[in-house]
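Hi P.,

Sorry for the delay on this. The queue was packed all week, but I finally got your sequence through. Input first:
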Amino acid sequence: MTPEYVIVLTTLPSDFESRDFGRALVEERLAACVNLLPAMDSVYRWEGQIEHDTERQVIIKTSRERVVALWDAGADRVELGTPQGRTTPAGVDVICERVLPLVR
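Then the structure:
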């Protein structure tokens, strides 16, 4: 069976060591590629209050079978409670053919 590839979207605090986090995920083969976008302002509701923070969007390319291990690794490294994110099917052929086989 061919593995299903996914893109995981999440955010990290802007002052977090994002580059080290991304590198660790790739070194451990939990991700084929981690994109770290520049800092951005975020507005969100948390525990009944409207909050404002500076965060970085993180895009993680991996296989569906590695998502649980990826979240576990994230929870171990980011002491912010349960990681929040979204997993979406990767429908881009170049990801499937050239990039994501690196997690095998």
